[in-house]
Amino acid sequence: MERFITVLRGQGYKITPQRRAVIGALQECGKFATAQQVLEHVKISFPDMSLDTVYRNLSLLVELGLVHEIHMRGRDGNVFEIVTSDHHHHLVCLGCGKAECLDFCPIHIEDVVKAEENGFKVTSHALEFYGYCRECRTAS
Questions:
Q1: Which residues contact 7 (CB under 8 A, 6 or more apart)?
Q2: Tens digit of pLDDT for each residue in 79-93?
Q3: Domain residues for 138?
Q4: Cα–Cα distance between 124 and 121 in angstroms, integer?
Q5: Of 44, 68, 113, 123, which has the fewest beta carbons less than 10 angstroms from its beta carbon?
Q6: 9: CATH
């Protein structure tokens, strides 16, 4: 929680009780929480909080680099996870929606250098691989 508060304050954002509740819910939900799951946790303390408020706070946390948003193609919504390392990438199953973290980066520095040849400065990147997990492939 303290890392979130430090970054938010450093960027000039207020630490509201609702924002604390969203951060706490993310911590309780663990990896790959949906906005709806975060809302369900938050509603215990803030029964009037809306899904829009949860999304606004999640978007801010993503923008500040505190949370990863993983795009779930073909699903009702994306999932979110607290950033715990510099960066990492994901495998996303199109069948069951399960997501897994890759423990390596498939992007090489040569790729970044090539992308920057025309004056573009790369500051970060995100990569998701979509396919089918072992369980979904054997079930069909």
A1: 64, 65, 66
A2: 898 887 767 788 988
A3: 87-140
A4: 9
A5: 123
A6: 1.10.10.10
